[in-house]
Design a protein that fits this description.
alpha+beta, 4-stranded antiparallel beta sheet, elongated
Length: 385
Amino acid sequence: METAQRILNYMHEHQSDCQQLLQSIVERESPSLDKAATDQLVDFLAGKLVSLGCEVTRLSQRDFGDHLLARYWPERCGPAPEGQLLVLCHIDTVWPVGEVSRRPFRIEGGNAYGPGVEDMKGGVTQALMALQAFNDLNLCPARPVVLLFNTDEEVGSPTSRPHIEAEARKSQAAFVLEPAVSTEGMIKTFRKGVGMFKVKVQGRAAHAGADHQRGVNAIEEMARQVLAIQAMTDYAAGTTLNVGVISGGSRSNVVPALAEASVDCRVSSAAEGDRVVQAMLGLKPVNPAATLTVSGGLNRPPMERTPAIVAMFERARTFAAEMGFALGEAGTGGGSDGNFTAALGTPTLDGMGAVGDGGHAVDEYLILRFMPERAALLVRLLQTT
């Protein structure tokens, strides 16, 4: 109890430093697809991590900002025990360069506003403040802490996924500093898996008036496939399929020879993921004269609520109670890098970052009063896991 309160008091005493750091991170814009801009934030964070005593490895990227891999184990803590703890933070945002000029960082009514402030630069700030607390309070984590800051999460983590999975396999636990669920600050103990599919129908073009019977209408075939795909949705199982984009045809007087559709899929379990993937890839044309091609699959496996994750959450809730605040749990249909770690069997707590609302929206905000307790909770978990 004494240690928990000491950590929380430290975070409250350094809230001004936390807010200044948050502003510095928000004002360094980092769109997923703007390497030059994002690398400027990477430079800033690398310097901070070195000053905090981390061994920092820069993972160079061609199309995205460089990823950062930082290892924290102070000399004062003696020989390092086996294993490690993994902290995941993405620093890329959905906002283009120039957005911070249109919506500058500001503090108003106890909230912080600015592009990416909640998703997830608040979480990045809390990770750095946690390391600062370890140093200033002369504390040690239970085992070495590896922090991975990636720059491509918002576009599916295509280049960082191998690094995330490699570190997860070596880790006793993973903590993902994505935003919490709702303004109540609930931890995410499960996430749906995410899949994307492309459906293409090849028909045969013909004159719609003079030669209609010779045509094979690709849009008609696609319409039948859309009904079949949407019917795979099973709300009771937590499975949804959504045909979100369709294109096809050229002119109203031409029987369309081609139609394409993009499908989003969300599943709550690996078994449901297997079922949906097999069903999608097994689709057959209703009209045998049409050709149907389906590609894709799950790009993020589900983060299932396992007994190990529940046990970790219960420990987190106990620590929160020691510090005088309540902690709840929830799940979401959205995916994160925590999906990758949990699917490998690494106990994972997600939503450990900022508390706020409006992620990916112009009214995005972070509630400042939660930052000290969220950072303190991270320290306590790293101390004891």
